[in-house]
């Protein structure tokens, strides 16, 4: 990412300005060299596993770097002219125009939040509609990853971005991440196919509990008692919702729980696999490995049924064109909403990140109930609300603690 950003910034500067290092004069007349700060590195918050980054922040930073590079050339030209010319040129000095991203940052961030939520809701609705006439979650999971992999391969082909090299050591680090990603993705889809979308997302609200438990007992990190207390409403709310959920079955419940555990381990292995590779390339490699992992179970568990009557039944119900286009678009929406999620969350502070994640789940649950007309009991509704409130409290406390740690390190 660093080399890609710096090379992109360098294209703005004339060759004459690149012959000598950029310098600044101190108050005592000494000269110090100014180094460009690399941005977008994984260590600065780049998400290891989520989708391709559009990263308008890169364009903003590049424009700032280019402005810094171009200013010395203006000064040199002025110094070589006569005093009169220097006076005229000083009065006519022009400031580089401010880009749209710099002029309206809040508007751009709001647009990314909207697109993230919109694509997520569309994915969940279309995904569930497919399962209503084609109940084969293992095969559909393969399609999700396959479309994303094709998207990444096309992007590599046109050089957006340039493919990062892969070696055996990095591959060993990424395989556990990809396996957990594949298992979590498949089990989520098994749950979506078995129960209501709203109920699956209610169960998946327990993911912070599993993350905290893994951090405490596996990674050995100290979790404050306030965080553990904030998770109590999450457990209580999910339990209340599960007891009276009309679409409840053990397949959907257990699959959602396995998904929570899988994504927790994915986070653990991701921390161990932190590299200098940008998240766009990293997600592409993880998607390729996850696709390879998902194909054998789909063939073994659903292959005979698909060949016997699965494809023919789906085509008879909706037609070949709609069947193929539905599968293509659900895969595209899956990839794009992950891509937008990464870009959105990297543009905001941790607290806004936490609130955004909670609101996303609320949007998905609410829209799924409205679109599919799912009937829920009063206790299920109350339990879901309590669980979401608990997640919001947990996310708020965790974001505050992370911000305090960051400020302490900075100080």
Helix content: over 70%
Distance between the termini: 27 Å
What would you call the structural class? mainly alpha
Task: Count the E strands.
Answer: 2
Question: Keywords for this structure?
Answer:
2 domains; mainly alpha; 2 strands; 75% helix; 15 helices; two-stranded antiparallel sheet; 411 residues
3D architecture notes:
It contains 15 helices and 2 strands. With 411 residues, it is mainly α. It folds into 2 domains: 96 residues, no CATH class; 286 residues, no CATH class. The chain has a two-stranded antiparallel ribbon. A hairpin with a 5-residue loop joins β1 and β2. α5 runs antiparallel to α13. The longest helix has 40 residues. The protein is globular and about 65 Å long.
